Amino acid sequence: MIEQGLNATPSAPSLWRDRTFLTLIAGAGAIRLALVIGAWILVMLISSNPPLEVFAFNLRSIDALDNHRDALHILNFWANLRGDYLETFVYSYVIAMFYKAFGSHPMIMGIVGNLFYIGVGFFAYGIAVQLGRESWERRSLAILICLWPSTMVWAATPLKESAVVFSAFGLLFCWLRLLNGRPGSGFSWAMTALGLIASIFSLVCLRYYLWYLLWGL
User: Quick one: pLDDT at residue 90?
Assistant: First the structure.
């Protein structure tokens, strides 16, 4: 019995019991959302040009314009069930689904992109847990990644990078959790495996980042 206890895999600390981290990530999320909404409102007030064009041309992110226009085309096709067949990227369909649910203003995807990065903060914390880091290290890593300045800029537009980073961190978290044998119950094992499959599928569909990561290994 003693030997079995020594060989047992130690349980990972629960994220939801770390109230300090939850407070920090909530604050970081509020900062991200306030900045993106404030930036959109400011551009609408000071510029006569469409805000998305202002962001796209100043940030050199023309793909954001293309993604938005393709999503509107997809919405029109869904509404009328007619029109030219559109060959476009998978993320434009993701944008179209959010537009269908919440309205077709491009600021919607700015909010969604920042929510993805809040999720990245949770994954970063979980990854640090799997690596056995101290509580202050877990919190610092998660908040640093969540509030990295360039991510707040790029996530303000309908670019796929926020979803790609979210999927990449999700893949690493699920893989480490399975590798360490820490999912716990059978249901947790199944959900972790499902998360791993979903992350791989998302990466392959959005951009072939998975193959770049594997090549790097």
Answer: 83
Average pLDDT of the segment spanning 130-145: 92
* Cα 137 to Cα 32, 189, 211, distances in angstroms: 21, 26, 30
- Phi then psi for residue 12, to 5 deg, are -80, 145
- Residue, of 86 and 182, whose pLDDT is higher: 182
Q: What is the 3-state secondary structure (H, E, C) of the chain?
A: CHHHHHHCCCCCCCHHHCHHHHHHHHHHHHHHHHHHHHHHHHHHHHCCCCHHHHHHHHCCCHHHHHHHHHHHHHHHHHHHCCCCCCCCCHHHHHHHHHHHHHCCCCHHHHHHHHHHHHHHHHHHHHHHHHCCCCHHHHHHHHHHHHCCHHHHHHCCCCCCHHHHHHHHHHHHHHHHHHHHCCCCCHHHHHHHHHHHHHHHHHHHHHCCHHHHHHHHC
Q: Is the pTM of this model over 0.85?
A: no
Residue pLDDT, tens place only, 8-18: 444 556 777 88
